[in-house]
Amino acid sequence: MSARQQLPEACTTALGDALQPDLFKALCDPVRISIVANLAARAEAATVSEIADCCGIDFSGVSRHLKILRDASVLLSQRDGRQVLYSLDAGSLAATLRGIADALEMCEQQAAG
Predict the structure, then answer these.
(1) What integer pLDDT is reported at residue 8 of this predicted model?
(2) Quick one: which of 8, 29, 47, 103 is 20 to 30 A from 88 by CA?
(3) Cβ-defined contacts of 19-23 (< 8 Å, 24+)
């Protein structure tokens, strides 16, 4: 098998390892993008009610969106008494996106080489 025939398998494997479908599912909703943007712009973590106020949706809806984002490793949560504080896990998100970019660049380099 030639290098060109092996390329799609190598790229598929690299991208398969880097891509996280839950991340893209989590980020494809406009409300969740608003939540991420709001948390990115904050200097500190926020409660569910603070997030609900900024995004104009009810408490239970925000809770559902926050769970999806947390399960996709986009957000961190920390209990503070009776409240849960949420913050953007920028390091994890950036590392995942860098991994995808690295896999794409590897595929491009193999195709050129």
Answers:
(1) 74
(2) 103
(3) 19/100, 19/103, 20/72, 20/73, 20/96, 22/71, 22/72, 23/72, 23/73, 23/74, 23/93, 23/96
User: Where would I find the beta strands (DSSP E) of 5-92?
Assistant: 46-47, 75-80, 83-88
Among the listed ranges 5-14, 55-64, 81-90, which one has the minimum average pLDDT value?
Answer: 5-14
pTM (two decimals): 0.81
Both tokens of 42, joined, read: 């904050």
Rounded distance, CA 102 to CA 57, Å?
Answer: 37
Confidence label for 5 from pLDDT (cuts 50, 70 and 90)? low
- Strand-pair partners of 86: 46, 77
